[in-house]
Amino acid sequence: MSVNQTLSTYSDMAYATSVVIYIAAMLLYFGEFAYGRAGTVGRRRESVLVNAGRGESTATGVIGHVETPKKRPLAERLGGMAVSMTVLGALVHAASLLLRGVATGRVPWGNMYEFGSAICLAAVIAWLIVLFRQLRTERREATPAQLRGLGGFLMLPVVVLLFLSGTVLYAQAAPLQPALQSYWIVIHVTAAIISSGALLFAGVASVLYLLRSRYENNPLKLTRFGSRLPTSQALDRIAYRATVIIFPVWTFAIVAGAIWAEAAWGRFWGWDPKETCSFIAWVVYAAYLHARATAGWRGIRAAWINIFGLAVMIFNLFFINIVVAGLHSYAGL
Question: What is the DSSP string of 7-43?
Answer without folding.
Answer: HHHHHHHHHHHHHHHHHHHHHHHHHHHHH--TTHHHH
